[in-house]
Write a structure and sequence with these properties.
Length: about 375
């Protein structure tokens, strides 16, 4: 999994090299997604989390620095030929029980989690960009339909006004047509407001100035293969990045337990010492110099602090991560099934609308036009 995430991240970072070209004003929903994955500023900032995790991985594998000490002492009389003592030593802490390797294991999971988090943000960004893009397409079609209906009503009003002069229709009929025209004008203003909001929001997702010109071309297809929904619903649990992130959280918690148990034994310290003593005695001995070399070792004993609190915390974290993973799996399956059911209901409604409602409206409009044309 880590290798796949690394390849995915590398490809995305390579895509950043194409930045700097002037933005296109006419985009398809799919090309808008490609642009957002490269230009979205929130996503670009979030990608630095991978470098942060890689830095922690590098640090987790480093040994502690050694200590070096030196001391020198003389008699208080400051006699240069008097007694003196010089000592120097070297101390090195040695990690035991594989603490560094277990710390690296935790850091490696952190890198994988950072990559999975980026993939999840990309998933959410793709969904939002597609939603805004298709919203703009639908709004454009609604505005076109609104204008077409306004044109028809305007022609009906013109015909009605002519018939009113010869007392073939009432004033109420003409006013009703004018009210319908006003309703359409108000609806159009609302659609234009929604279009502006969607355009500004999509520009933000694309990393552009909110006032940048933007036109989303294409159509929203309703020819969906319902037989494909079932396997997609089943694959959602395994393929969604947030599920992979939750699974990695379980792996990290397990690695934290191993690290906490390894930290029960603190680092051992091995030291090398050298000292030189100069002593002054009465004649006939005189001055005498003694040199000493020593080796020392410090072994902390886990008598009172066995890191039991940290181990208990890590175990509880692992249990919580497993519970959250189980809850997320259920939530993903519920969301996927709910989306599938909603699409099926909407398709049935659309088929009824196209097969019956639109046909009735077209027939009624044809009758009205024929009636006015025939007088």
């Amino acid at each position: 999994m880590i290798k796949q995430l690394t390849i995915h991240s590398t490809l995305l970072l390579a895509a950043l090299a194409v930045r700097g070209e002037p933005p296109e004003s006419n985009l398809m929903p799919e090309s808008a997604v490609t642009t957002a994955l490269v230009e979205n500023r929130d996503l670009a900032a979030a990608r630095f989390a991978i470098a942060q995790a890689q830095g922690r991985l590098q640090q987790a594998g480093l040994w502690p620095n050694p200590d070096w000490e030196m001391s020198r002492a003389r008699e208080t009389s400051l006699d240069l030929n008097g007694e003196s003592k010089f000592a120097t030593g070297f101390r090195q802490r040695f990690p035991i029980t594989g603490r560094l390797e277990k710390a690296r294991a935790v850091a490696r999971v952190d890198v994988a989690m950072a990559m999975a988090e980026i993939r999840n943000q990309e998933r959410l960004l793709i969904g939002e960009v597609l939603a805004r893009s298709r919203e703009l397409i639908v709004l454009r079609e609604q505005l076109t339909a609104n204008q077409d209906i306004q044109d028809i009503i305007h022609r009906l009003i013109e015909v009605s006004e002519k018939r009113l002069k010869v007392a073939e229709v009432s004033v109420a009929d003409v006013n009703l047509a004018r009210l319908e025209s006003q309703k359409l004008l108000l609806a159009r203003a609302g659609l234009l407001n929604q279009q502006e909001i969607a355009s500004v929001g999509l520009n933000r997702l694309l990393g552009r100035d909110p006032r940048s010109p933007l036109d989303i071309s294409g159509t929203v297809s309703t020819n969906l293969d319902l037989s494909r929904f079932a396997p997609v619903t089943q694959q959602a649990v395994a393929n969604r990045p947030d599920h992979q992130l939750a699974a990695l959280a379980v792996n990290r918690a397990d690695a934290e337990i191993k690290l906490a148990r390894a930290q029960k034994w603190e680092d051992w310290t091995v030291g090398f010492d050298y000292s030189r003593d100069r002593s002054v005695f009465d004649a006939p001995i005189g001055a005498k110099v003694d040199n000493f070399v020593g080796l020392s070792i410090w072994i902390p004993l886990p008598l009172w602090n066995k890191n039991q609190g940290r181990i208990s915390e890590a175990q509880a974290t692992e249990q919580r991560a497993r519970a959250e993973l189980s809850a997320l799996e259920l939530r993903i399956m519920t969301e996927a099934q709910s989306a599938e059911n909603q699409i099926r209901r909407l398709l049935a409604t659309l088929q009824q609308y196209r097969g019956e409602s639109i046909k009735l409206a077209e027939d009624n409009l044809a009758l009205l036009q024929k009636g006015y044309a025939d007088g």
